[in-house]
Structures are given as structure tokens and as C-alpha cells.
């Protein structure tokens, strides 16, 4: 029985990347898009910044998973491209927590918590 709780705890803590959105204009609405480009520099064609995005994942999540999470969220808000602008990753120290399901203490993983910030853009017609 204890092994079931251990498996559930591992699944709960493993999670996946999550992206939060801050729309720059609260009254603007854009239809969802079917594809979003990830670009490394401002595009040469005219565009408008529509949102700020921030993706975070559990310790040691690859940056590609964060970028894919950012892309998926950008599609829902109607962006045409995402431009990552800041790597805000930070180090998390190993810790100890009490687990009431297992009836004891467990160590939490230490390592790099990945976080990336970006701008969602909409190309001008």
C-alpha cells in the first residue's frame, strides 16, 4: 500500500511545464491560432506585442518543454510568434518535507528550476 502512495507522490511532484500569461491590453481579443513560431530576435515585418509569457517547470525540466508550453499557451491567445527574452532559472536547494501519507520525512530534489520569460506577438496585416 505504501508503494501506491509513493508512486502517486512521484507523479504529483513530477508535473510538467506551466505557462502564465499577462495580456498587455485587457480589452483586446484575438482568435486562437494553429501555429506559433519561436523566434530569437524581433521580426523584420511589422508586429504588435500582445502579451508577456512566463513558463516554469519542475527541477531539471528541459528548456524545450518550457518553450513548447509557451507555444501552446500563445496559440490559445492568438499570437503568431513568441520571442523568449529572459532566462530566469534559479537554483533550488535540496530540502526535507514531512509526508503524512508515508508517515515520515522525505528529501525534495535540489537543482535548477527552469523559468523563461517571453513576449507573444501578433503580426500586423
Give the helices and strands, then pairings.
Elements: H1 2-14, E1 18-23, E2 37-38, E3 47-56, H2 63-76, E4 81-87, E5 90-92, E6 95-99, E7 104-108, E8 111-113, E9 115-123
Parallel strand pairs: 2-4
Antiparallel strand pairs: 1-3, 3-9, 4-9, 5-8, 6-7
| Radius of gyration using CA atoms only | 18 Å
Instruction: Estimate the global geometry from the Cα principal axes.
Output: elongated
**Uncertain spans:** 1-14
Q: Provide the β-strand percentage band.
A: 35-45%
Q: What percent of the residues sit in helical stretches (DSSP H or I)?
A: 10-25%
Order the strands across the largest sheet as they lie in space: 1-3-9-4-2
The biggest sheet, with number of strands, parallel, antiparallel or mixed sense and barrel status, is: 5 strands, mixed
Query: Number of DSSP strands?
Result: 9
How many structurally independent domains?
A: 1
Mean pLDDT: 86
Termini separation:
60 Å
Report the structural category.
alpha+beta
Q: Number of helix segments? A: 2
Order of helices and strands: HEEEHEEEEEE
Architecture overview:
This protein has 125 residues and is α+β, with helices and mostly antiparallel strands. It has one domain (2-123). It has two helices and nine strands. It has a five-stranded mixed beta sheet, with helices on one face. A hairpin with a 4-residue loop joins strand 6 and strand 7. The protein is elongated and about 60 Å long. The N and C termini lie far apart (60 Å). The model is unreliable at 1-14 (pLDDT under 50).
